[in-house]
Amino acid sequence: MARSAESVRAVIKAYDVRGIVGEQIDEDFVREVGGSFARLMRSEGAGAVVVGHDMRDSSPSLSAAFAEGVTAQGLDVVAIGLASTDQLYYASGLLDCPGAMFTASHNPARYNGIKLCRAGAKPVGQQSGLQVISDEVTSGVPAFEGVAGTVSERDVLDGYGEYLRGLVDLSGIRPLKVAVDAGNGMGGHTVPAVLGGLPLEIVPLYFELDGNFPNHEANPLEPANLVDLQALVRESGADIGLAFDGDADRCFVVDERGEPVAPSAITALVAERELAKDPGATIIYNLITSHAVPELVERQGGVAVRTRVGHSFIKAQMADTGAVFGGEHSAHYYFRDFWGADSGMLAAMHVLAALGGQDGTLSDLMAEYTTYAASGEINSTLNSAEAQAERMEAVVATFTDRAVSIDRLDGVTVDLGEGTWFNLRASNTEPLLRLNAEAPTSEGVGAIVDEVLAIVRA
Q: What residues does the Alpha-D-phosphohexomutase alpha/beta/alpha domain cover (predicted)?
């Protein structure tokens, strides 16, 4: 069935499919997306698609409808059931087949969506398949005249845990007390399978799978959603706190004082560990990551490559450069040893290994990787692309005479020199302008934020 191009574009975005269930996304829609994805993958030689889903109420029925679309086009489906997104990527790599993960990640309960990948967890973004799918769903997916595919089930959770433990050996670390906030998301499913049996005392919080998120949104990027974990760390005397988002592909870290650790600092720590194993390797960082990351990489003899924000873009750079690791300030972490895909769990294991391999506190350890003050991501709601573009150009005009450089790799990045810079870009998934700023001091950051927001929110 043909759909309006506008309604399809509203859901099939730059690097995933996402919308409000019942309004923008339903079983008929995802059935057509499944059919179009299957046609595309069949044209590239695939014979099966692995499908997983998160704990949202709508995920089982939507993933089943997607599977119907895939099998109607002659491809088989391997259903792995409840899974984190990185568990789905593991299955795609293990089985060497394309994958589809039903999740809306950190979005509220009324949302759902699909993250698609090719065999070996290779990305599917707007320019690498999503535009083709969008066009085909708009015009109507052609019927397949051959034999329909079949659906089989496979449990890959234990294998996923074993694989990750083979990449980062935690068996010899000192005992650690680890507070974990799963946010009623898929971390409650994967943490016991991966970290159980290690010299870790897990203090669990909100491990019950509940797609209605009764305690707080599963978006640790928002400070309000870290409050419960921070309190738990302090009350329990934990050495470290971990917070996962809804589909558990992102992991945020809290130190023993209950203070958040910047994802850029985690990126720097993991980059240093990976460069120790592979001297001279390439490290990817996105353009809102702290400048501390490329500076560390270059000091350690590695090659730092800057990219735009978004998993499909950074995965493409990982593949093109053969990078050993990539990090984003949103707490997505990508590993060559994990098919170039992102895994918050694997990043958490690197931090646990670094912490457990020495006697100091996490705050002391991470101080080495935190050399600048940062604003974090500050969002401003602007409901039209025209309004977003107008405000961005007004910001550029204000700073042009003071800037050392201005680039438009992703939104606009203004470098003011001496370690001070900011990026302003439009969200790919929400009607927001996102601001990130960095400077040598918190006062410098505050001054930049105040000036930019005065223009954006005028």
A: 12-128, 160-258, 265-372
Task: Grade residue 376 by pLDDT with cuts at 50, 70 and 90.
Answer: confident
The dihedrals phi and psi of 45, each to the nearest 5 degrees, come to 100, 5
Q: Count other C-beta atoms under 10 Å from residue 182's C-beta.
A: 27
Give the catalytic positions in this structure: 105
- The DSSP secondary-structure symbol of 71 reads H
Token pair 């680039």 is at which residue? Answer: 407
Task: Check pLDDT > 90 for residue 427.
Answer: no
Which residues constitute the domain of residue 29? 5-155
Q: 111-118 and 282-286 as β-strands: parallel, antiparallel, unpaired?
A: unpaired
Residues 6 or more apart whose Cβ sits within 8 Å of residue 252: 220, 221, 226, 242, 243, 244, 260, 261, 263, 331
User: How far is it, in rounded angstroms, from Cα 231 to Cα 436?
Assistant: 27
Residue 328: half-sphere exposure toward Cβ, Cα within 13 Å: 26
Examine the fold and report which residue of 307, 342, 367 is the final residue of a domain before the chain moves on. Answer: 367
Considering the domain architecture, whether residues 175 and 35 belong to the same structural domain is answered as: no
Structure confidence by residue, pLDDT tens digits, 150-174: 999 999 999 999 999 999 999 999 9
**DSSP string over 161-187:** HHHHHHHS--TTSPPEEEEEE-TTTTH
pLDDT band at 2 (very low <50, low <70, confident <90, very high): low
pTM of whole model > 0.85? Answer: yes
CA dihedral for 23, 26, 29, 34, sign (positive or negative):
positive
What's the confidence (pLDDT) of residue 452?
98
Average pLDDT, the chain: 95
Do residues 453 and 446 lie in contact, with contact meaning Cβ atoms separated by under 8 Å?
no
Sorting pLDDT into bands at 50, 70 and 90, what band is 14? confident
Q: How far does CA 108 lie from the centroid of its chain?
A: 16
Q: How many domains does the chain fold into?
A: 4
- Lookup: tokens for 121: 């967890």
Q: Is 142 exposed, middle or buried (0-12, 13-18, 19+ CB in 10 A)?
A: exposed
- The two three-digit tokens of residue 458, written as one number: 């005028």
What's the Rg (C-alpha) of the chain? 22
How would you classify the pairing of strands 99-102 and 111-118? antiparallel
Do 140 and 268 belong together in one domain? no
**What's 452's domain CATH number?**
3.30.310.50
Q: Which residues pair with 325 in a beta bridge?
A: 283, 335
Cβ proximity of 375 and 449 under 8 Å: yes
- 376: three-class secondary structure by DSSP: coil
